[in-house]
Design goal:
The complex is a heterodimer of chains A (685) and B (267). By secondary structure, chain A is mostly beta strands. Helix content of chain A is 5%, strand content 46%. Chain A has five helices and 55 strands. Chain B has a two-stranded antiparallel sheet with strand order 1-2. Chain B has a two-stranded antiparallel ribbon with strand order 3-4. The longest helix of chain B is centred in the N-terminal third of the chain and has 44 residues. The chains are: A mainly beta (685), B mainly alpha (267).
Chain lengths: 685, 267
């Protein structure tokens, strides 16, 4: 196969942020996740849980709750504002001040006409949902104490509000509080501290279920205002509750990291006396579980350990299939590392700054198992801090390392670098073309003369780079403008083609010499996760969220023979069962038949000249091939060479000198920097 | 005998009743008693006319009322004097009226739109905005009489007081005292202890045990390995501390072994 010099990079201090709130839209099968830094991510549950869209956060935005209303997404936070997001332009559409102080919760009634927010000053404010925005309607009776959680009765006539030490039930018509349910404080020393009702759920049979900071899940009768049953599930707080669509199952998330399920079961078969019985406990988190969603088939939880866990319920899905597997989403499905191939530089994207590093060097060669000295350590060349509160949306560095660009929702910045003999100088390009706004993807051409930026309405802006100037050349527009944003941009190495992929699955290829659309690939049902154009053959390779790989010939405007044979024979089942998407595709100049792909747990070299793996044979056969004789090796080897030595991978790229750069982020490094977990006493420790 | 006895008793009584707190009536009666004693036993008691006693009673009442009134007036006087003193002090404390006026007008021009977390603040800013629209293009600082300067706040407090207090509430409820939290290091050590494969700790408690902190794993590690898919030449960075080097090599060795066993498990 060949020898590779591998730069194993572990100095990217990527730190994901905690999950604060989640909301699921059943009709669109989309999950919206709000993070601690104000970012909102949209996951497509129908497409292998792919992270479709990311709306970057702001340093002063602290989101406490999310709510879907038809296809619109609203969030409310401690800044006191209700924000509606534009999911096509990936930015907030507008924000409305609630004038009630910090907002703790937001909830929509089942008729989807009114939005209720619970505020710090003790008021529940009603907003009417209009076509173009929301409008304040009225306040319900003001209470003494902050409103922490809200839940509408399915009929829309009553609202349950969880406060401190009590739950209030309001009549939505008159606005008066009808019932006051007093929540018991904890036992022992916790009797002195007030109990906070972190979440409530109002069911259609007039029962209210509440989870509080004393670790209890209580079931109340809303008609009489009395407690029916109390379950103590943890010593710490019950931070979230979620009810299934058919109201037969309720899940509660705790500070310990467990998710407890309660189901309404009759005590004897056939009888109608349904009682809430604690059934399952899921221990999928190490830190607090702050956000929960109960979908029809799965329990989705997220919390302070930054992992999104989808646990399908085994009584709703078939056992031992891909559907029933536990899914953990740890890393973003978009690459945060950009590699300058000619210069050997790495650009790391953080929410508020960028870091540019130069890779180290070693001239010695050795044999297997040797440890070689490094002549030059990797050094951090530059840290570019972003001014302003918005977080960085995307960034890029040119292959020669002389241009660095990044964009936020409000602005684009371009810098010219000069590296000479250990000195680095940087100059900001001040006048950028005004067509460069709302940019979600940036890409430099391989000769660093052009900058490609995705812009509004699916168009791509081509700008020329020259000394210290950036001039607008052309705006490439596809024929039928897709409304969805562009999330992938890839330019070919010879400067002929530019490929742009949208989140709805469309991939457009533009001819850069004629500056017009060349062709549009047939739309595949799954969203593309990585695209790249081969330098010599001119084929476009695309990897999709359902782990399919396609190769399209740009000259002939049809799928290549290799791609057709791959579809005919099908990919190996173990390949299709992988749960992280391919985020980058690279090629080797010296070996045109090789394709480098990677996901979070493995990187793979596909040799297109070798036969494809058959379903009954082993996919991960590298270790086996090492042990057998060279003649047999030729018979047994197949096209997919997978290496799992490096984990967890954030980026794998091939430099121009044929050395591999592998950027890893060990999970232990992330876990050691998280907020403190609860102290649990385990037997024999 | 009884008379002598009576005299003794009566004299005693006479002495005890000489205190001024006793009411006029008893005084009078004791006086008359004493007088009676001095004269003789056989005399009839003195005649006190109805009118006299009535006058006495009225007089005593009046005296009592007068004394009460006097006390009240004294208190009032005291209070009034104190109030005046306070007013005086306050007047001394406040700045002269002209300076106050000037400052007020200057601050009205200069106050920018705040984050408007409170309703009255919002109203105020609305009125201020109107005033600001009328007066534009002013300098941002202004010197007044004396040593006062009025300037605008740069950027403003991004996080308002209410937001900060809400965040503090959340922080104290989850991570405050008495919430029984531990460190991530402890949790990872426990996981390590109970796991099937033990390995080195993620973070050493004693920091001088070969700088194996997360910051130090920024160095590159290059290891030369041979697999059938190619010979991977991964060069290892030389750590300054030999101990750390040995530890890190161990860590990678274990990791590679783990991967192999993982392979074995999967296939």
């Amino acid at each position: 196969m060949g020898e590779f010099v591998v730069h194993r990079v572990r100095f990217f201090d990527y730190m994901p942020s905690a999950i604060r709130a989640m909301a699921f839209n059943g009709s669109m099968q989309r999950l919206a996740v709000a993070r601690g830094d104000g970012a909102v991510e949209i996951f497509n549950f129908a497409d292998n849980y792919f992270q479709e869209k990311v709306i970057p956060g702001r340093s002063d935005r602290a989101i406490e709750a999310l709510c879907w209303v038809r296809g619109r997404l609203f969030s409310a936070g401690l800044s006191g504002e209700i924000i509606e997001y534009d999911l096509e332009k990936l930015r907030p559409r507008y924000s409305v001040e609630a004038y009630g102080g910090p907002i703790w919760t937001i909830s929509c009634n089942s008729q989807e006409t009114l939005l209720g927010v619970g505020c710090e000053d003790g008021t529940v404010k009603m907003f009417e949902i209009l076509e173009e925005g929301i409008q304040f309607q009225r306040n319900l009776d003001r209470q003494k104490g902050r409103i922490i959680s809200l839940s509408w009765h399915p009929s829309g006539a009553q609202i349950a509000a969880g406060m401190i030490d009590m739950i209030r039930i309001f009549d939505a018509e008159t606005g008066h509080a009808t019932h006051r349910l007093l929540v018991e404080r904890g036992l022992g020393t916790t009797r002195n501290t007030e109990v906070v009702v972190w979440s409530v759920a109002f069911l259609s049979n007039d029962t209210v279920i509440s989870g509080d900071s004393a670790g209890k899940v209580q079931i109340w009768d809303a008609v009489t205002g009395t407690l029916i049953r109390s379950h103590l599930i943890t010593k710490w707080d019950v931070l979230g509750l979620s009810v299934s669509q058919d109201e037969s199952s309720v899940i509660a998330g705790t500070s310990e990291g467990t998710v407890v399920q309660f189901q309404a079961l009759a005590s004897t078969m056939g009888q109608e006396n349904n009682q809430w019985v604690r059934t399952r406990t899921f221990k999928n988190h190490t830190h607090d579980v702050r956000a929960l969603v109960h979908t029809d088939t799965a329990v989705v939880s997220g919390g302070m350990d930054t992992q999104l866990v989808v646990r399908p319920l085994l009584d709703k899905v078939e056992k031992n299939t891909k559907e029933s597997a536990l899914r953990k989403i740890l890393f973003p499905h978009k690459s945060l590392v950009c590699c300058a191939k000619k210069a050997g530089l790495l650009l790391f994207q953080f929410p508020d700054h960028l870091e540019l590093w130069r890779l180290g060097e070693s001239s010695a060669k050795g044999q297997a198992g040797d440890r070689l000295p490094v002549m030059k350590n990797p050094e951090k060349l530059l840290q570019l801090q972003n001014k302003g509160e918005d977080h960085i949306c995307c960034s890029a560095v040119s292959p020669c390392g002389s241009w660095v660009a990044f964009s936020t929702v409000s602005s684009v910045r371009l810098y010219k670098l000069q590296l000479s003999n250990g000195n680095i100088s940087i100059k900001k390009v001040s006048k950028l073309p005004k067509e460069l706004h709302s940019v979600h993807q940036l890409c430099f051409s391989s000769d660093s003369s052009r900058l490609f930026a995705s812009s509004a309405q699916a168009s791509v802006v081509v700008a020329s780079l020259d000394q210290l100037q950036c001039k607008h050349l052309h705006t490439l527009k596809p024929k039928s403008g897709s409304s969805q944003p562009i999330h992938l941009l890839s330019a070919s190495e010879n400067g002929n083609w530019l490929a742009a992929a949208h989140t709805d699955g469309q991939i457009h290829v533009f001819n850069l010499h004629k500056l017009k659309l060349h062709c549009t690939l047939p739309v595949y049902s799954s969203c593309p996760t990585a695209i790249a154009i081969h330098p010599t053959t001119g084929h476009l390779l695309s990897a999709h969220a359902d782990q399919q790989i396609f190769e399209f010939s740009l000259k002939l405007k049809e799928y290549t023979a290799w791609s057709r044979s791959l579809q005919r024979e099908g990919l190996h089942p173990l390949w299709l069962q992988r749960d992280t998407p391919i985020t980058h595709i690279a090629f080797n100049r010296n070996k045109p038949a090789h394709v480098f792909l990677h996901d979070a747990f493995m990187f793979c070299i596909i040799d297109q000249s070798l036969p494809l793996p058959q379903a009954r044979k082993k996919l991960y056969n590298q270790m086996d091939l090492k042990t057998i004789s060279p003649q047999k090796r030729i018979q047994e080897s197949h096209a997919f060479k997978i290496c799992k030595m490096f984990q967890h991978l954030l980026s794998v790229d091939l430099l121009d000198d044929s050395s591999l750069v592998v950027v890893e982020r060990p999970l232990a490094d992330i876990v050691s920097q998280l907020p403190p977990p609860v102290r649990q006493k385990k037997f024999a420790t | 005998m009884t008379s002598q006895h009576g005299i003794m008793v009566k004299s005693k009584r006479g002495t005890t009743t000489a205190s001024p707190k006793k009411s006029a009536n008893t005084e009078i009666t004791s006086e008359t008693l004493c007088q009676g004693l001095e004269s003789s036993d056989d005399d009839a008691p003195e005649e006190v006319t109805f009118g006299d006693s009535k006058n006495e009673a009225l007089r005593s009442l009046k005296l009592a009322l007068d004394s009460a009134k006097r006390e009240k007036e004294l208190l009032k006087e005291k209070r009034r004097k104190r109030q005046e003193l306070f007013q005086e002090q306050k007047k001394r404390k406040l700045l002269p009226a002209e300076v106050l006026e000037e400052i007020e007008s200057a601050s009205l021009k200069k106050v920018k739109e705040s984050s408007a977390a409170e309703e009255d603040e919002a109203e105020e800013t609305k009125s201020l905005m109107k005033r600001r629209e009328k007066k534009r293009a002013e300098k941002h600082t202004r010197n007044l009489e004396g040593n006062y300067t009025v300037t605008t706040m740069k950027g403003g407090a991004a996080v308002s007081f209410q937001q900060k207090s809400a965040e503090d509430f959340l922080q104290s409820r989850l991570y405050g005292p008495g919430r029984l939290r531990t460190t991530n290091n402890q949790m990872l050590s426990l996981q390590n202890k109970r796991g099937s494969q033990k390995s080195a700790a993620v973070q050493f408690v004693k920091k001088d045990w070969g700088k194996l902190q997360t910051q130090s794993i920024k160095s590159m590690f290059w290891v030369f390995l041979k697999c059938s898919c190619g010979i991977f030449l991964i060069m290892e960075n030389k750590c300054e501390d030999n101990y750390a080097q040995n530890l890190t090599s161990e860590y990678f060795f274990i990791q590679i072994v783990l991967n192999q066993t993982k392979h074995a498990k999967k296939e």
